[in-house]
Amino acid sequence: xxxKKNHRLSxxxxxxxxxxxxxxxxxxxxxxxxxxxxxxxxxxxYYAPWVNKIYILMNxxxxxxWIKPNDKIIIVDHTDTFPSKEYLxxxxxxxxxxxxxxxxxxxxxxxxxxxxxFLGKKVKYTHFFTPDGKAKIHNFAVNTVKTIKNNYSKQLNxxxxxxxxxxYKHVPIVYIKSLVLQFNHKYADDIHWIRxxxxxxxxxxxFCKENNLNTPCQQIHYAIAKYMYLKNKAVLxxxxxxxxxxxxxxxxxxxxxxxxxxxxxxxxxxxxKEEEKRKLFTTYILQFFNAYFPTPARFEx
Length: 301
What we know:
Helix 7 (about 250-260) links the parallel strand 9 and strand 10 (about 265-270). This protein starts with 12 loop residues before the first strand and ends in a 9-residue tail after the last helix. It has a domain at about 15-120 and about 170-200 and about 240-290: Spore Coat Polysaccharide Biosynthesis Protein SpsA, Chain A (Alpha-Beta Complex), CATH 3.90.550. By secondary structure, the chain is of the alpha/beta class. The relative contact order is 0.18. The protein has helices spanning about 35-45, 95, 175-185, 190-195, 205-210, 220-230, 250-260, 275-290, and strands at about 15-20, 55-60, 75, 110-115, 115-120, 135-140, 175, 235, 245, 265-270. About 25% of the residues lie in helices and about 15% in strands.
């Protein structure tokens, strides 16, 4: 007779978002807002009630208007995570992400969500961590190369970690705080260089090209994942196996299928650039969100 595995949560797990705010940007896809955060938070409330705290790292002058005071969601200002004002103001997401580990009272185990990523059904914490607390990382993380091409970097004088030639998949990204802090200390000059790049253009590849570095030279998700793996604090898995990616151009075909299939996780890529088509996209996606997540979360006004 097989013994049923005990997957009771034995350590707190927080969730972190970085967020630009509620302002609408009709001509900037990366900064656009289609109420994604509200419904991503609803998905956690629906399907991951074991989550401890949810931190939203942002400019607090633009706090979400639809969140009521509660003990679940905590708004964190950039000034609370960047160690020096010399890095601020900062809109480079790569730089902001290097400071997540500095959030006051953040738990040792945490998951980083983008606001375009949603839980589609109930999920156990063991989807992200092993029962003994090891992080589950994307198996591509071990395929690293030198960040500097041909040992030349325009005399940046930076000790770069090994990285990949691929942007980390849009999935919930799993971290162990103490290992991230170790990584940031070991590669302190790289972290400083990323943080001093206050504005990111497009995907940020221009910084890499200008300095003869492999892309994505400023994104550290894969580098930290491998660091945790080498410290025996992470295990490899295919994080994209149970994820549905919705291309913004095919959303009218793909989103109805998501409603029927209900994947564990799905990501909606906003790729429409034409203003009139963007208005149609915004209307359609809001209808989809309200069909999938019809009940407001406990922390909504």
